[in-house]
Amino acid sequence: MRSAPTSPSTISTWPTWSGCWTGLRWSEARELRVADLIQVPMPRLLIQRSAPETVEAKPTKSRRSRHVPLPDELLPVIRSMAKGKGPSDLLITSSGGARLHAAAFKRTTHWPTTARGRRLHDLRHTAACLWLAAGVPAPTVQARLGHSSLQTTQIYVHYLGDSADKAGLEFLNRRGHAPQIVKVIFRWSPRQESNPRHPHYK
Fold this sequence. Notes:
Number of helices: 11
Largest sheet: 3 strands, antiparallel
Shape: globular
Number of strands: 5
Oligomer: single chain
Radius of gyration: 18 Å
């Protein structure tokens, strides 16, 4: 994948890059505030609310907040979005500083041509596939996407097929991972099985 653009002349493409790197829902991207950009101890976004275009802002679909890490390629873009804004200001906006609207965004980016039949929501699918193909564990991807069920995340694993299996095998074969996995296994207890939802997802 190419590096994310940072020039003001390419500001109209920022929501696209943000979507395919973070897996945010369009409604979540519309409601992000500058205060949701967390840079210490690591750069990430705090996803708390969503703003569908036809209703007022509300909690996320899962009604839970979550964190999404920001890769080095995207961080300069997000920082550029926040520059000169106050904590309560919208983070991702149009070039004129207005809240995102799908119709205007598609018109500005010539979406029917540039997207080649893809939907805005497909940017979220792109992020999921990129993470899984890179060997990120499915439960971690689940947490980043805000899926209430791991089964939903597993759909992407089946879609990726052999590439997901290869990435997972490479992850397991990396030096130092095997002892960590053994420790996790020996920390497991039958009591945990009756409550499969890990505290991390609360």
